[in-house]
Design a protein that fits this description.
The complex is a heterodimer of chains A (200) and B (203). Chain A is 67% helix and 2% strand. In chain A, helix 3 (31-54) packs antiparallel against helix 8 and helix 4 crosses helix 5. Chain A has one domain. Chain A is mainly α. Chain A is built from 10 helices and 2 strands. With 203 residues, chain B is an all-alpha fold. Helix content of chain B is 71%, strand content 0%. The mean pLDDT of chain B is 83.
Chain lengths: 200, 203
Amino acid sequence: MKSYLGPLNRDNPILTQTLGVCSALAVTAQLKPAVVMALSVTVVCAISNLIISLIRNTIPPRVRIIVQLLVVSTLVIMVDQVLQATFYDVSKMLSVFVGLIITNCIIMGRLEGFALSHTPGASLVDGLMNGLGYGLVLVVVAIFRELLGSGTLWNHQLIPSSFYESGYLNNGLMILPPMALILVGGLVWIQQGTRKSSEK
Amino acid sequence: MKELFDIFVRSVFIDNMVFAYFLGMCSYLVISKEVKTAFGLGLAVCFVLAITVPLNYLIDKYLLQEGALSWLSSRMADVDLSYLTLIIFIAVIAGTVQLLEMVIERYTPGLYLSLGIFLPLIAVNCAILGGSLFMQERHFPTVIHSFSYALGSGIGWLLAIVAFAAIRERLKYADIPKPLEGKGIAYIITGLLGIGFMAFLGI
């Protein structure tokens, strides 16, 4: 049980395994797209892990990358169509990053490293947990960036307008893309730091 | 001509793949411990981008877009295949990379030794697919524009990873807090470099 929960903190795909950073950071300027992105990745990761695990004994090793890419891109196309039909505004905001789930290293990494050698049930849980671990980082970064950068959360004004009247200013730097990287760097710092102390 | 140059400069500096869109971050963070390997990977990315983006541009324009098939016959004029974009693009990229690997291995063994190990990695590099998807979103008028864009993004990526690797080589001698070593500081440096690159916004 413990190993399944690993991806949430100890083996977090972004913080420890350095996977899936690519598309993760660009969508975290606001909470809403971050949550949608996290959910999409979780769904794709879990289902593709399950499918690849089901057919793992029939895939010839030489062409496995292509097979994996085809399975993942089919799933991503479905997610993309669903998003366009239900959350059109968010889907516009995410633009190419939905498509980039295909090349998200978390998914390829889990398929290569886990689904090819484990049973379907375990793979499904593993995919789910890795997706959630990824989502967790996304959501934390997005909360900081949206709250400090535009004073809102999920598009609701949180910082009262009296603050602004007395001279409070939004931190415009938070909206800019580089800040996401610095925040993730800080998260890595906190995570590594706490882990060291708990292992001592 | 001026237009092409504009696209090129814009994609190198302002819309830099790494600093503005975080594309190709995974390999960027992992393969930047030495300037030499970083340069090899950067070249390979440049190369593959410059080939696949124009190729995907042609496919998108003449096969996938709404009404793109009208050159076949007038009955096909209202066929819209754009939902196939993702799967076709990734297939083209994976295929091209495989092909390139074989061609390079056969004709230029020297280049193969320096680029070869990176090529399979590139099939799943987000910068490559990202390049094609941004190309589709920007609706370039001709294939030459898309080529200029691809070359610019590739060189931008190369520039970013080489600069980063050079900083990282120096970092060995720096005194960094223990938990921040390695990945943590890598993220923060990339962020700072990104802020530096924002200075180009005014151009």
